[in-house]
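Sanity check

After download, print the first record. It should look like this:
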Amino acid sequence: MQITAAVSRGPSAAPVLETLELEEPRAGEMRIRLVATGICHTDLHEHPGRRAPHPIVLGHEGAGVVDALGDGVRGFAVGDHVILSGSSCGDCRNCREGRVTYCDLTMPLCFGGQRRDGSTALSCGGETVHSHFCGQSSFATHALVSERTAVKVDKDLPLEMLGPLACGVITGAGGIIEALKVGFGASVAILGAGGVGLSAVMAARLIGAEQIVAVDINPARLELALELGATHAINSADPDATTQVRAVTGRGVDFTFNTTNVGEVHTMALDVLAMNGTAGFVAAPLGAWAPAMFPMLGGGRQLRGILGGDANPGLFLPRLIEYWRQGRFPFDRLLTFYRFDEIARAFDDIHHGRVIKPVLLIGDAA
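Expected structure tokens:
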């Protein structure tokens, strides 16, 4: 079938809408009619061609309606509402143990721009266009996804809001609850108050952390962090920001959760830890970063990389949705909506920090 998709090819500032051909779903796949999809910083980084091959349709925070089923799909029916998550093989040890974010094939499945067998689902006049980005390629009116990629949700939910739950939001909330296991009464510093960091702030408040320190360079983001549950807000541009974070408890914090790729912030994340504290991070530092690592990790301190918040989407996303229904997890405050044909403006806005989480409105849920 013919679809409209935003294609990354060449030096443009943002993906450009084109008409493409989409294959019929193969065995184990579903065709999803997209209602909306969030834009993540990973999309920004991959648009110029960092890891994924070009041309490609990006997008990995999709939500939509099941439009067609391939052979052998179980547990879904045409008309079901779904959130789309990342791709995983289902066969490796981590997948079998429910730790799907650490699938052995995460990198080729999510960034290879193709199915596991090397095929793609998209073409343009005979030219191959890469698909299945993070199991989705949701910058499109329709996408083919593995049944493992979809999480069914109730039809009374606002589907246009839900896509970001499966990437940015689950990374932040899961990082606090599932990966670091921040407990009631603990102290945590969250470095970076974007979509991932603010989701972490809300999760830390949800589980009853006593001191929740938001650290960012943007005063407006820090103000929002306080509204969403942070107990302290510290501007990382202050020369004594590290001292200020440690002073919150007088001994350093039990946990840090770093959402940035800035080397100096990675150093701060270790410097502010209390004895036996844990520093979690979701992005490696850019460029050379060579701190005095061993002194920083003395005293039982740990450094831990986190993918996808350590969370199983099929189990964790329904929890987040229920918390939102109860008014305890207001992730909707992070969202700014754009028409699909405004994708260039949305890319520019997130690139320059004007918005936290842009969401492209693609179609109707009905």
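If your output differs, re-run the checksum step. Summary of this record's structure: Residues 259 and 276 are 21 Å apart (CA to CA).
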